[in-house]
Amino acid sequence: MEDCEQLNLQRLEGSYLKFIVENHDELSLLEHVEKCAKCREQVKKLVETGGQSTDFGNIFQREADDPAAPQFTDHLTPEDFIEARIQWRKNRLTQLNESAETELEDLRKRISP
Predict the structure, then answer these.
(1) Model confidence, pTM
(2) For residues 111 and 100, what is the distance between their CA atoms, to the nearest angstrom?
(3) Please, where are the H alpha helices in 36-77?
(4) Which residue, 6, 9, 54, 66, has most beta carbons within 10 Å?
């Protein structure tokens, strides 16, 4: 079965779908933080103390691996930094999902008989 291209393509389809769903989940969390004062305050404390978060990974870390990410030192307040990071990450996730959905559509064409 390992040599069956159709089966391999269907597994790949599942991987794309999982990736897209995980991105949508993260988008929902970010949108929640935008609106929820209680969560926003918790994120603000994380930023101010340089703490870690299992809920948000490294999105709100002061230093990011991605040079395109907004940097803490470029913002006057933690709130400005948080907002910049939320918008940056939402845009990035949207771009990733658009690419993944395009690739998924192409993949589905290859799977169809």
Answers:
(1) 0.84
(2) 16
(3) 37-49
(4) 9
